[in-house]
Structure formats: structure tokens, C-alpha cells
Amino acid sequence: MSDQYTRLTRRLADADPDIAALIEAEGRRQHDKIRLIASENYVSQAVLDATGTVLTNKYSEGYAGRRYYEGQQIIDQIEEIAVARAKALFGVEHANVQPYSGSPANLAVYLAFMQPGDTVLGMSLPMGGHLTHGAKVSATGKWFNAVHYGVRRDTGRIDFDEVREVALRERPKLIVAGGTAIPRTVDFAAFAQIATEVGAILFADIAHIAGLVAGGAHPTPVGHAEVVSTTTHKTLRGPRGAMLMSTADRAKALDKAVFPGLQGGPHNHTTAAIAVALREAAQPDFGTYAHQIVANAKALAAAMTERGFDLVSGGTDNHLILVDLTGKEIGGKPAAKALDAAGIELNFNTVPFDTRKPMDPSGLRIGTAAVTTRGMTEKDMPQIAAWIDEAVTAAREGKEEALDGIAAQVRDFCAAFPIPGWSQD
Fold it and tell me: Which keywords appear in this protein's UniProt record, sorted alphabetically (predicted)?
């Protein structure tokens, strides 16, 4: 256990024992479970340290050198470092590290380049898109004319014939490439060709794959998309925040959309933690990590296929696996609940052409970023697949008592893979 963690928990326990106890319990939960939620990870101790600093005391409306509050001499340097590291890591002309999270970052893109009622073309939410890509329940679907593309029923992959057909018919001002449940490589070049043909801005949302892009395990959208958004807390392994990146000619509009368009002062402690995470992602071992994420996902997908699970698109090219449980005769929600009880954390998810309701869908979404951070490799994936299979079978057959036994095995297994920021000692 680090000295800093010991001091933190001791002070917190004195000031608020209830919250301290819950944080400790959450640390144990994160340690004792196999965490396969595709949008989660474990950050380093350095990122944790940066997040919990006196930087949270400072308000900093505006941008470096152009603030509305005094006393920004240090904050400006931190933000400038974060911006420079983002530009260098992703090879972009402009970066903004102030968005609070992914959805506000995406909303800033709309504010920068769209007017209410303008047409946006994004991936349908049930097919693997994100709420902010024009879903009806989102502000982006309420304020803009959202039209959608999906995947082919026979392959589970993006149907570019459909993308082009809809784009030519609807003439969108903005085309969104990327999503939240896409297990295959995103062909940014194909999207760019269609965007050029219809005169649309191409906007790449790489929230899920940013770490893979940075580590060379997924093609980059840079050079194809004029605007790129990402969260910083998924495969990029940083704090809960977001970034916007763009060509130089799109920079001014994006910055104005973030501030003053949508936000006040940035969260300076998060900016510092993003800077730390970007420095980590620029190291050679991060590339090894990114490729290991993909290797683990492929190994887990293969092991699950051997056990009779139906995977959307037949497998994965990245960190994400989408499972259709229809053939297992159980819904995604009861399966996810059972797996959680068995010590395996993931989420229920719609699958393309799902016939069930969104809150009780047919699928599960699995990601390998967090288990890879803990040091698990391809050799561990068959065992994880076996536990998933056992838990799903137990849930289907109503044998809930079996879940406790699986959870005990998972706890013993996880003990060999420590997590940053918490110790079982």
C-alpha cells in the first residue's frame, strides 16, 4: 500500500468514516472482480495522484493566456503541457483538453458546426452507436435532424452502401464515425470518401478506441476526419475526462463551443491527470499494452465461440466483444446480473436487429482493457470464458447457489493481479 494512499485514507476516515468505508469497499470490489466493462479501466497511481491535488481549488475560465480569473500562472502551464502532449501523441494540429466528459465534448462539436434542425448522420444506437450520435432520447436527436446507418444483417459490420445511400439522400452537414459497441475496425477512409462526396464534415468519435489508436493497435482517424473526440478514461487509461482534436481551421469554432458555449472553468485536477496519462501513453510499453488488449479480446472471443456463444460479426478486431445470447435462451440483463454475482462485471447491451427491449436486451458487451492493465494475457482468457459460460448456464437453470462458488474462484484468481491505488493488505 502506498504511503500516499495510507495518508489519504487515514485523513478521510477521520473526516468522514462513512465515505471512507465505501471507498475502501469499492477498492476491494474492483480488486476482487474480473472487470470486463468496455468503457472502464484502471488508471495508474500517478493519474490517481494528479486527480487528488490542490488543483481542484482553482477556477480557470478561458484558455491559457486568456483567462477571466487571476492566478493562472501554474494552471496555464499544466494545460499547455496537456495540449502539447495530445497533439504529439495523436498527430493533430489542434487539441482542447477542457471538456468534462464524452457527451459534453460531442455536444460541443454540434454547437460548433451545426444549427438546430440541421441534418446529422450517425450510427443507430441499437446497431452500436452512441446516444450523442442522434439518438431520439438525446439532445442530439431532439435538436437536430438525425438520420442513421447500421450494420449488415449477414455480417454484423457497417454497411457502407447504406451509409453512402443515406448520405446522398439526406445530405447531412455532419457525419459521425465511431460508436459504443463496434467490435470491428472502423474504416475512417471509407467514411471520409462519403463525407467528401456529399460535402459533410467528418467527425470521428474514438472514445472507445483512443488508447488503441495511440498505441498503434487501430488505424487513426487523423488525416480523414476534420474533428475527433475522445474520452480519456477508457482504453487511453486516463481520468474521467475528454478531449477534442481537429485540423487548424476547425480549432476556433471548437474552442468557442467548449468555452463559453457549454462550460465554465475546466477541472484543473483532471487536466493534470490527462497530461500524466498522455505522457504514459507516449511510452513504448503503452504500445505493447494496446496490442495486448486486442490479443486478449481475440483470445476471449475465440474461447467464447468454442463454448457456443454467438458473437456479433463473428469476433473482434479491437477491445470489444458483443455477444448475442438468443441462442443461450436467456436475456442480457439476467445474464449480466448473474455474472456480477459471480464476480464478473460487464453490461447488458442491445445487439443489431434486437427483438427485445433496450432495458432487457439480448446481448452482453465485453471489453478487455481493464483486465489487460492488471496483467492478464491470452492464457487467462479461456478460464474467464469458462466462468462466463458457467454463470450464464447457472442463471438460465435457476441455480443461483453456483454463482457464489464461481465468485470465490474469481477472487482467488484476481489476488495474483494487483490494481493501482488499492491494496488487499
Answer: Amino-acid biosynthesis, Cytoplasm, Methyltransferase, One-carbon metabolism, Pyridoxal phosphate, Transferase
